[in-house]
């Protein structure tokens, strides 16, 4: 059963993915392919639903907050690697 918070996360992911889609209509600076939207949608889904799961299941507030912050930092590192390649890995963008 899908909860209200899971529906809200899904809606937020769609709104976040609409930002580059709308930007692509007005400028050539944003140039995402279908693959980019799929990858970012998957990444946002994994992060969003993982944070929601940890928020529901972990009772200790200090552990809960530290794990969610760690997950968000991991998301930002993966996003930066995919966008500009800060670690020069094979998945690096640009």
Number of helices: 3
Sheet bearing the most strands, described?
none
Global morphology:
flat
Radius of gyration: 15 Å
Distance linking N and C termini: 40 Å
Structural domains: how many:
1
Low-confidence stretches: none
Q: Provide the residue-averaged pLDDT.
A: 93
Question: Helix-strand pattern, N to C?
Answer: HHH
**Percent helix range:** over 70%
Strand segment tally:
0
Strand content: under 5%
Structural class: mainly alpha
Transmembrane segments: 34-55, 67-87
Keywords: Membrane, Transmembrane, Transmembrane helix
Structure described in brief:
Keywords: Membrane, Transmembrane, Transmembrane helix. The chain is 76% helix and 0% strand.
Which helices and strands, and how do they pair?
Layout: H1 4-26, H2 34-57, H3 61-84
Helix pairs in contact: 1-2, 2-3
Transmembrane segments: 34-55, 67-87
Keywords: Membrane, Transmembrane, Transmembrane helix
Task: Please describe what this structure looks like.
The chain crosses the membrane at residues 34-55, 67-87. Keywords: Membrane, Transmembrane, Transmembrane helix. This protein is mainly alpha-helical. The chain has one domain (4-84). 76% of the residues lie in helices and 0% in strands. It is built from three helices and no strands. It has helices at 4-26, 34-57, 61-84. The longest helix has 24 residues, at 34-57. The termini are far apart.
């Amino acid at each position: 059963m899908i909860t209200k918070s899971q529906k809200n996360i899904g809606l937020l992911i769609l709104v976040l993915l609409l930002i580059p889609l709308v930007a692509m209509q007005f400028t050539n600076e944003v140039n995402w392919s279908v693959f980019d939207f799929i990858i970012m949608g998957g990444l946002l889904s994994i992060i969003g639903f993982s944070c929601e799961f940890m928020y529901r299941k972990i009772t200790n507030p200090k552990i809960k907050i530290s794990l969610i912050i760690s997950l968000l930092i991991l998301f930002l590192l993966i996003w930066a690697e995919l966008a500009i390649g800060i670690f020069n890995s094979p998945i690096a963008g640009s």
